[in-house]
Amino acid sequence: MAETARSSRTRLYRDGKLDLEGFPVAEISDHLAEPGTLVWLDLCAPTPQDFETITEEFGLHELAVEDARHEHQRPKLDRYRDHSFLSMYAVCAHQGGEELSVSELSVFVTAKALITIRFDDRFDMDEVVSRWDDSSALAEYGVGYLLHGLLDQVVDGHFRAVQEMDDRIEEIEEGLFDGTAGSTEDIQRAAFALRKNLVRLRRIVLPMREMVNTLMRRDLRIVADPMMPYYQDVYDHVLRATEWTESLRDMVGSIMETNLTIQGNRMNMIMKKVTSWASIVAVPTAVTGFYGQNVPYPGFGTEWGFLVSTGVTIGISVALYLGFKRRDWI
């Protein structure tokens, strides 16, 4: 994988309206000192110097900055005296959910600023900016407005990933009985990949429920009252994605068991057919073997003896065939 290029983006809202973009990070503290301002800073693939800068500019707690420096944090919300720290993951499903792309996000929330930190550029921040622009009338409600746009985009990504996995599982289910789902090995491989990614997705989605619920607490003073319905909508999406993920895990397990059961039934049918034909073939073998004895027996060396042996062979074989056919063994 190519190394992600370092980049930074800044935005300044003044009195609920977008006022400035692309200004230097070093000027943030000056803008924050002005009344009625709101700042967004995004860092992609930050350097140690970047972390020192934001610590100085925003007065962030060293433990929160330490968590932001290191990848593979668990999804969580930590509260400090004058700011909060969030760790979350954006996801994108590929090949029907058999591949899952995960991008970690660290977020600092202060009274007048939102700082987003990404270790790579797989999460499209342009989509978040578009959401902010589409709902610019809500910018007057401060940092809760910016955080909502980010959470909404992340949670929608979770929802799309679950939807894609659901479609893939439904496709496999329909193909199990009509033979279009592929070989047994292909089905088992796809089901195992889906199950593995669903477990991974559950670890990402489940903590979001507590995170969003905590953000809506009034004592945090992050979400203004007019923004509460928007956060409740995000919370509902989180609940649906969580419950959907749980149900899909059960469905994948059912697919794996059903596929093995179908293969077992097919094997039983094959064994019945092989056994039935072996029984039919055994009749002429036994009869001809008996008449092939080099000793005198009734009809030995006569034409009628040959006709009797042939009739017995054909009669018993036909009777066995009809009996097996009636029981659907052939």
TrEMBL record:
CDD domains: TmCorA-like (cd12822)
Main subcellular location: membrane
Keywords, alphabetical: Cell membrane, Membrane, Transmembrane, Transmembrane helix, Transport
PANTHER family for the chain: CORA FAMILY METAL ION TRANSPORTER (EUROFUNG)
Gene3D superfamilies from the UniProt entry: CorA soluble domain-like (3.30.460.20), Magnesium transport protein CorA, transmembrane region (1.20.58.340)
The protein's name in its UniProt record: Magnesium transporter
A single GO molecular function term of this UniProt record: cobalt ion transmembrane transporter activity
Lineage summary: Bacteria, Bacillati, Actinomycetota, Actinomycetes, Kitasatosporales
Entry similarity comment: Belongs to the CorA metal ion transporter (MIT) (TC 1.A.35) family.
Superkingdom of origin organism: Bacteria
Organism whose genome encodes this protein: Streptacidiphilus jiangxiensis
Membrane-topology annotation of the record: Multi-pass membrane protein
Subcellular location: Cell membrane
Pfam families from the UniProt entry: CorA
Transmembrane parts of this sequence: 274-292, 304-324
A cellular-component GO term for this protein: plasma membrane
